[in-house]
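Reading a protein record of the kind used here takes only a little practice. Think of the row as the fold of the chain written in a discrete alphabet. With that in mind, consider the following protein and its fold in token form:
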Amino acid sequence: MEKQLHLNLLASRPPVPAGLQSSSKTKMGPGRRRDFTPLSWSQYFETMEDVEVENENGKDIFRVYCSGAHGPVLLLLHGGGHSALSWAVFTAVIYSRINCRVVAVDLRAHGDSKVRNSEDLSADTMAKDIGKVAEALYGDNPPPIMVIGHSMGGAIAVHTAAANHIPSLLGLCVIDVVEGTAMDALNSMQNFLRSRPKMFKSLENAIEWSVKSGQIRNIESARVSMGGQVKKCEESTRSPVVSTSIGEGIIEEEEDEVGEEESNKKRMKEDDQETKKESIFTWRVDLTKTEKYWEGWFKGLSALFLTCSVPKLLLLAGVDRLDKDLTIGQMQGKFQMQVLPQCGHAVHEDAPEKVADALAAFMVRHKFTDFKEGYMC
């Protein structure tokens, strides 16, 4: 169980009891109700655009969110099931600390990106996507780029760097993904994914669930990023039944049972009619269908990470065990590592200030950029 709590690397951590979240963002005074209304991307990024890239079958479109016009580019890759919006609060923080540009990408089949083959989530294809997006943005003379990835996005960042898809690569930062622990966690991932609610009555209810379950421990980040994880259903094909296991706004799909009492049928019909009056939201990405790619994301990742010749930073949530390759690599000084305690798996969402501090210090130390004038580190 401890291993599962630490190492769910495709989505965020499994639910923990409400009230145990460590982030001060989720703590409110007595009698005050927390605000779960969505926040707009525009409060954190300067621009949003759709980038077209060419492939063998035609054109793919990738949604990107950007801030800044000068300095090195921080190219941000989110985790499985998430979107570029998971970097929103972090972007505002890091942009206030150092001179940089930020580009957060909705990966293939995630967020608002539109690709011809949304089922190909192989590491090779996704890494090529990142190279093509960078080329579409900057042409043949790209600025220095540091690739930063969380979980699945961290694995894709390593594959992108190792394959030299970013010729102007400056550095590499991987957040909370280690090959050994990721591979160990894969066996339990399907059970975890099935344990999540299938639907929500509203985006507000999805935000509330993400905070109370511990998936995102920072309520501000949840309010902007959950909109990239769930979408409004086009049409409900099965009768949803309201579940009160986590909150009244969460909807679970249940199979009809033979011999159900008439009173229950009547109640279900009333619940169904009430639910249809509201917008129903479900997950944008069915992660259970991506299982065939999981091993390819993580197998051999440690050795690949160590072969990247650029300066490297590994950020981990809590105390994590390194595999043999990374342990030796760390002893040999091949990368910098920092553990950020009291965070969930979504480290950059739970503690954006701590992640920004670690990354800013790393980049200034390597003379990639400077602190902004007036910022006190």
User: Anything to note?
Assistant: The first strand starts at residue 47 and ends at 55. The first helix runs from residue 2 to 7. Confidence is low (pLDDT under 50) at residues 1-31, 236-246, 252-261, 267-277. The CA atoms of residues 20 and 315 lie 23 Å apart.
